[in-house]
Amino acid sequence: AQKVTQAQTEISVVEKEDVTLDCVYETRDTTYYLFWYKQPPSGELVFLIRRNSFDEQNEISGRYSWNFQKSTSSFNFTITASQVVDSAVYFCALSEARTGANNLFFGTGTRLTVIP
Amino acid sequence: GAVVSQHPSRVICKSGTSVKIECRSLDFQATTMFWYRQFPKQSLMLMATSNEGSKATYEQGVEKDKFLINHASLTLSTLTVTSAHPEDSSFYICSPYRGRNTEAFFGQGTRLTVV
Q1: What's the pLDDT tens digit per position in B54-103?
Q2: Among A25, A99, A102, the residue to mutate for chain B (most B Cβ within 10 A)
Q3: B93: which chain A residues are within 8 Å (Cβ-Cβ)?
């Protein structure tokens, strides 16, 4: 069965600090997809990244970067030079090819608060 | 990204009444729709999967007679919470399936409060 663990329930940082959100996953499937979503107070889910299991390259997008390591089943997300607008709940999610690839299993989320 | 329209965004209803939530995929046809539920300060959990023209598949612990799903067309799926109770108060969000090699798209969500 699949499982996504976000051990950090809440994190607070001061603006301009870097912060890393951890995500550890479990799956028996060899083909799977990992996602990160941002959920601001309004509730909508903002897509950040999708990575398939065969692509272990790290990715950087502006102040965001992701470190995918299959050896440790982790897909960590780092925000550099954090800003107040980054305050939100961040979800890591997993989907497995055998279940259709877009049925997502979410972690419990990490609430990030950036203090001005 | 795909355009998904979900409404209402917020609804308050009395206990015992029914509430219908609509989810439309505006720029693509969705043969499959996922419905998720998120209780306050919790994660999103898949409730059910609907396929156009057939019965929905419900996850364990989700009452199919309480959460009626209709996926009558490729662009519209509805979730009706019947005989709502305060414990049904939650954030409901839809996700139409666009294809294996795409991100998952979500509606804006519906915050239901049953009083």
Answers
A1: 889 999 999 999 999 998 888 899 999 999 999 999 999 999 987 766 77
A2: A102
A3: 43, 45
DSSP string spanning chain A?
--EEE---SEEEEETT--EEE--EEE-S-SSEEEEEEEE-TT-PPEEEEEEETT----EEETTEEEEEEGGGTEEEEEESS--GGG-EEEEEEEEEGGGTS---EE---EEEEEE-
End-to-end Cα, chain A, rounded Å: 41
Which DSSP state fits B104?
P
Q: What is the pLDDT of residues A52-86, one digit of tens each?
A: 999 888 889 999 999 999 999 999 999 999 999 99
Decide which of B23 and B98 is more confident: B23
Q: Name residues 16-35 of chain B within 8 A of A (Cβ).
A: 32, 34
Could you tell me which chain A residue has the CA closest to the CA of B97?
Answer: A102
Give the model's pLDDT for residue B1: 63
Tokens of A114: 């950036």
